[in-house]
Amino acid sequence: MKPKICLVTNLALNDEPTVENRLLPYIDCLGDKKADVTLFSADSVLKQDIGKKVKHASIFSERERPKSFIKRAIFEWRESRRILKKASIEGFDLYIVTIPSMFLLFNLYLLKGKKVCLDVRDLTWEYLDDGSLVQRLSKFLFRILADVNVKYSSYQIVTNDTEYEYMSKRRGEVLKYSNGVTEKQFKELNNLSAPSSDSVFTITYCGKVGVAQNLSIFIEAASLLPDFNFKIVGYGPQTEEMEALAKEKKLSNVEFTGHVSWSEVLEHYNASHVLYAQLGPLFSGAMPSKLFQYLATGRYVIYGGEGQAAETLRQFKMSRVIPSNDVTELVEAIKLAKSQQLLHSESEFNKSLIAERYVREKNVNRVLETIL
């Protein structure tokens, strides 16, 4: 008899590429094992290629997520309870509940008595700002809720060493499924050509445009390097603010693409000399999956930040870690990359390391061998 597996997220794969990237390898690898897979997600309709592989239980809600911290927390608490209650009555053999929505974890007791794997894609409650009284008190409460509810999972699946250490102090067996690239993405990224030698030197950021990334630093660097092109590929809550900043500075060397398809992302990678990312100090425990995409392209990578991502990048060549939110360091790193022609000198080393350790399907199969 086919094992009945339930994948649970409270987000929409169509809107969140990081969620899609995380769950697709589960879907594909479980399909290879002839499992009967049902996906609970906030998509009204799945993309056709994904919809062919799984049964879909839509938990789509027309209500918009509130912007204020407290109202959003209440909204996500209610939505998470609704989703888990709906999933619990179906009687699956195994539940894989993927977060970064902490509220799915905080309501995990609703799956008491069932076989549950908690897929920890981010410790989001640990990123709350201690400088805010409301967020500091919330972090204290959320830590208690996390500790109480994690015991309802038999396994915790984590993405990096920071999460592994955190979860190892709790109940259950901890397994690692590192973020990375899918097999299909790796082939496409690995086959990119080098940018034209006579093209304008281009630095590209690709991903969410949000508070954690603070791309005002990127725009400040563009104002100091008028002969370089700067691209912001993606969209997020701070897009309009960043566009306004570039307009205020009258910068003609900054391009905003907005939301783009994967094929367009590849085109932007192909035209780039340097790829850039940043996370502020509050997010030091995170490892942005886009860094693995960057490294698989063979381009030179500049990362502003510390903690988990900085530690991971030490394995690779053709990358430089600088302090976050430091315009001077960013400008100097870009100049150095160009002047010393570091752009492709060790690209094959990085690509081979990605292939060995950070292809998602390989890591998912290792996890599934244990939990099934």
Automatic annotation (TrEMBL):
A GO MF term: hexosyltransferase activity
Entry-linked Gene3D superfamilies: Glycogen Phosphorylase B (3.40.50.2000)
Native organism taxonomy: Bacteria, Pseudomonadati, Pseudomonadota, Gammaproteobacteria, Alteromonadales
Domain Glycosyl transferase family, first and last residues per copy: 201-341
Protein name, entry field: Glycosyl transferase family 1 domain-containing protein
Pfam families named among the record's database cross-references: Glycos_transf_1
